[in-house]
Amino acid sequence: MTGERSERYGAYVDGEFRAEDGDGSREDGPLRVTDPATEKTIATVATAGDAGVDAALEAARRAQPDWAGTDPAERRRVLYRFAEAIENRADELADLVTRENGRPIGQSRALVDGAADYIAYYAGATTKIEGETIPVPGDRQAFTRREPLGVSAQLVPWNAPLALCCRGIAPALAAGNTVVVKPAPEAPLGLLGLAEIATEAGVPDGAFNVVPGGEATGAALVEDSRVDEVTFTGSVSTGRAVGRTAADNLVPSTLELGGNSPALVFADADLEDAVGGALQALTLVSGQACFATTRVFVHEDRYAVFREALREAVDALTIGPGLEDPDLGPLVSADARERVRECVDGALENGATALVGGDVLDREGYFYEPTVIEDVSDGAPIVREEVFGPVLTLHEFADEREAIRRANDSEYGLYATVWTNDLGRGHRVANALEAGSVMVNQYAGSYPQTPFGGYKRSGLGREKGMQALEHYTQLKTVNVDYGSPRDGSDSEE
């Protein structure tokens, strides 16, 4: 978003900003974007509403046939320019995201790099979306083609908006679809800036549109019959509603939902690395990540040592505004902080103890202390539910079978980490865990080429990798009967 723009923004449709609010049929008034570190409004953004969604979908549908008909090699060149433009504007985009969601600026810069990586990865895939030739009897031929679905509606959360947006739009655009993105109301600025950069890089007008707003704008988008595919990342409750609407409209959907992921630390693990992994789960966007390993299970032989090392590491964390690049920033909103406070207070009132932390920080901004909870049963709400804050629960286990059983005792199944120097155990446990992604001796190590998604209530479908292209395309089978040469034909004599 160029520096001379005012602090009032609107939807980005057909290659330009719309300053007006929606028509008010379902949603009134602008969004006020707040810096979580200062609690001050930093921008107002006009809600798209029904009228903005209508304009965006019309633009996307107009642009889609030409974009789909563009030579795949040219789509590749456009997307590579887009990726390069993101890299060139990395500092600007990282600043926007940190100011709107509180994430430490170093984390935001890393996610901008990740966003560019997604675009570049799928740019290289445009010429590799292939069908198959299928043997059939007689003078016939059968083959398949992968064709774009049309218009993709994508609902993006606030915690990692640039990376998660590019994770979805990159394969969609690479396959010849156009997209309409609805950002979370807490964090629309980064995605509006991203859309403007896309246009400047040569992405055609109407191919990438952004419609800010709340629930009403999201409903207007997902319910519209002009939408051919839906991608959603967010809560289980909203995901159910989105998936139900997509099913009613008979369009495919990908749903990445909540998580309550386990970390398993075995007796032979490198404890320094395992403690570092727990800290990453605690501090990455202040624990507001769907794949945070919030349930930490430690073998009884190393529990005391791990516990003390983790306590010291948490005590040493720096806390402050995201632009100062601390270890831990604020939560995204006052409501988010209150939900974390209620969850921790409930556990403490029912017999749990806080090894460290356990309270709201007395300072400006939506800060909560980094917290580790002990003496809590596997059935407690703080263990069963997604806390979405800088909170871990610490548990002790006796053997491998017990660790696996307790790790799998969850309605979620998005992510897990295993810490061990026993190669056989690493494979056994990874195979036994009910999770869409398992990391062995690392916390984060996911790349554009590795599929990502959840088991159980953590969602449906897979993002990333070449597998995502299957979701953004539909398969056509072509059967040809070319017959035998007939008398008088032009066959060779």
TrEMBL record:
Q: Where is the active site?
A: E256
Q: Which UniProt keywords apply?
A: Oxidoreductase
Q: Where is the composition biased (Basic and acidic residues)?
A: 15-30
Signal peptide span per the entry? none
Can you give the residue ranges of the Aldehyde dehydrogenase domain? 29-478
Query: Does the keyword Oxidoreductase feature in the UniProt annotation?
Result: yes
For molecular function, the Gene Ontology terms on record are: oxidoreductase activity, acting on the aldehyde or oxo group of donors, NAD or NADP as acceptor
Tell me how this protein assembles. Homotetramer.
By sequence similarity, the record places it as follows: Belongs to the aldehyde dehydrogenase family.
The protein depicted here goes by the name: Betaine-aldehyde dehydrogenase
Its taxonomic path starts at: Archaea, Methanobacteriati, Methanobacteriota, Stenosarchaea group, Halobacteria
